[in-house]
Amino acid sequence: MNVEKIKTVGELQATGHQSKSVKQELRDNLISNIKSGKTSFEGIIGYEHTVIPQFERAILSQHNINLLGLRGQAKTRLARGLINLLDEWMPIIEGSEVNDDPLAPISKYGTDLLAEKGDNTPIQWIHRDNRFFEKLATPDVTVADLIGDVDPIKAANLKLSYADERVIHFGMIPRANRCIFVINELPDLQARIQVSLFNILQEGDIQIRGFQIRLKLDVQFIFTANPEDYTNRGSIVTPLKDRIGSQILTHYPATREISRSITAQEAKVNHELAAKIHVPELTKEILEQLSFEARKSEFIDVKSGISARMTITAYENLMSAAELRLLRSGEERTSIRMNDLLGAIPSITGKVELVYEGEQEGVEDVALILLGNAIKTLFGEYFVEIKKLSKPGQYDEIDQLTEWFINNPGFELLNEMPTNEFNKALDSIAPLATMLQKHQPNADKADAHFMKEFVLWALVEYKKLAKKGFVDGYEFEDNIMNHY
After folding, report:
1. What would the DSSP string read from start to end of 38-75?
2. Considering the domain 3-249 in this protein, what is its CATH number?
3. Which residues of 159-179 are buried (b: 16+ CB within 10 A; e: fewer)?
4. Spans of all domains in the chain
5. How many C-beta neighbours within 10 Å does residue 33 have?
6. Tens digit of pLDDT at every position of the chain (484 positions)
7. Dihedral (C-alpha) 15, 20, 22, 23: value to the nearest 10 degrees?
8. Where are the beta strands (DSSP E) in 298-441?
9. Fold agreement (3-249, 252-382)
10. Number of helices and strands (H, E) in the chain?
11. CB atoms within 10 A of CB 462
């Protein structure tokens, strides 16, 4: 349909256009996508078999929806994805504040103009990108903000009495008629304001200051809420929950692989910079494991959630740590080093809520503990299970490594070491090459030096080696000799 050529109600009717509700519109377009095999929610990773099918069922049922989940679980992104299920263009009566349907207006302005001009009533077209409204629920939100109020200035300018419907100033929800309206963090909305939504959700109408106008609004409501809010800051009043058709529980990524895909999609890294920095696969695994360790840590209030944004920003900081080394060294290319992971600590400290024990440890120490736990977990997966490290009477590759440090005290890795010198230093530890050949024979050669350094850090976590930090880098030595 060429919308530029359709400018009046008469021309619209001549096309055979039929009005439909926004919920019916979403339903019809979803059905069309499913039949054609088209993905309706691009960029939503990890919900393919859990949240999205429930979301689709709610749309097919033409329900208002509450997305319930912890922070950083893509609730808002999922709600915004609904835009793509709207028709590209929607006709309204020109100048209508409430997006009056040209064939079935609901406001006095729309009905009066249609009665006056009939088929010559002018229309305008609204693109679907402009049919999405969003409001963050805060304690200062009022009924007037959401529903509307009498406007004394309008009454004075138009010389109308307060009994005239035309003195009403419509709030955000009436202006979102025939659109999608999202209220984020619903429990933060005061109970009396939640009550004002009852009629809109059930009967689809509103009343303003006693005006019996009963506008039959057509709105697709999406609410988001955090379970923590139900106890810490507020709650969703029971009658309102009863009027929301479907409540869908969101969740964090179930696996590191899914989490890695989310980070790769969301992390903002300059393409030119990415071409200069090699990021070993094991590095990405460590970053993702950090969030999994945090979600089960005794130092962290897991009920508050560990946002996916933690890993995303940690990856960005990791790349910046490597970039800083490039800038200082003047080298053209580099690879991520274990020390660069410490550059991601600020991305962790601001995104976790500590319990009492965590407060006693200190947030930076907790972050380092999480990093250490992630290293130990992955060492067990990539190299040797921790229970195999202390078998009495068996001389293995771990013993070879510790023996090497006994015979070669004072081994240092400096933070700003040129790449060639850094790699040469790691290559001098012959048992490391033996470990890689035994446990990771198919590893990418470009990842080899990172994996060698990773082994050293892991053995420090297992107390097999000691690591002393100083201004310019680290010194590794045998842990037993370190105690003398």
Report:
1. --SSTT--S-TTTHHHHHHHHHHTT--EEEE--TTSSH
2. 3.40.50.300
3. eeeeeeeebbebbbbbebbbb
4. 3-249, 252-382, 392-484
5. 16
6. 678 889 999 999 999 999 999 999 999 999 999 999 999 999 999 999 999 999 999 999 999 999 999 989 999 999 999 999 999 999 999 999 999 999 999 888 899 999 999 999 999 999 999 999 999 998 889 888 898 877 777 767 777 665 666 677 788 999 999 999 999 999 988 888 898 888 888 776 676 666 656 778 899 999 999 886 554 456 888 899 999 999 999 999 999 999 999 999 999 999 999 999 999 999 999 999 999 999 999 999 988 889 899 999 999 999 999 999 999 999 999 999 999 999 999 999 988 999 999 999 999 999 999 999 999 999 999 998 766 545 555 567 888 899 999 999 889 999 889 999 999 999 999 999 999 999 999 999 999 999 999 999 999 999 989 999 888 889 999 876 554 4
7. -140
8. 334-335, 411-414
9. no
10. 24, 14
11. 18
What is the amino acid identity at position 468? Answer: K
Q: Kindly indicate whether the domain formed by 252-382 is annotated with CATH number 1.10.8.80.
A: yes
Tokens of 70: 């912890």
Can you give the pTM of this predicted structure?
Answer: 0.86
Q: 392-484: what fold?
A: Arc Repressor Mutant, subunit A (1.10.10)
State the Cα angle at 361 between 294 and 413, rounded to 5°.
80
CB 224 within 8 A of CB 184: yes
